[in-house]
Amino acid sequence: MKEISAHRKKEKYTPLLKAADVIQCQLSHWRNRDDFRRLRTSNEESTLKGFDELGCIFVHIPKSAGVTINKVLFGNLGGSHRSVRLYKRVFGPYTFSKYFKFTFVRNPYSRLLSAFRFLKSGGFDQDDRNWAEENLSGYETFEEFVENWLSEESMMEY
Questions:
Q1: Cα–Cα dist 17/150, whole Å
Q2: Overall pTM surpassing 0.70 (yes/no)
Q3: Distances (CA, A) of 110 to 28, 88, 106
Q4: Which of 97, 94, 108, 101 is nearest to 78 (CA)?
Q5: How many C-beta atoms surround the C-beta of residue 25 within 10 A?
């Protein structure tokens, strides 16, 4: 499968190759078809409909102004924090390669400070509050948190 995909990148996409990619995507993700269709066509708060309308995919990195960007460009929460891997599955190889993809990054220190404050103030939901209670309750200040909790392993926990 990977050899075919790598080979196809060198070829010009013909209507036949496009159709083959669409069929391959549909067959390989048949059990998720209703979820994928709903993601791309619904008018819910978090939908990929705007991605299709504008021919682009926005990859939202947490605490990097993604909610604002999604609301301004797409009128909703867009793809939320969905992964590039999921976007490849939802849109299929041809559409994914055709769409313009972009993201915004933030200074890591500012992003971590923002996440710390956000979680200390309750976050979005009960999962955020539970995580903050388990991991942040022992730290009054951001400096304490950085000096005593932050490590390569702990950063991957949330």
A1: 48
A2: no
A3: 40, 30, 7
A4: 101
A5: 21
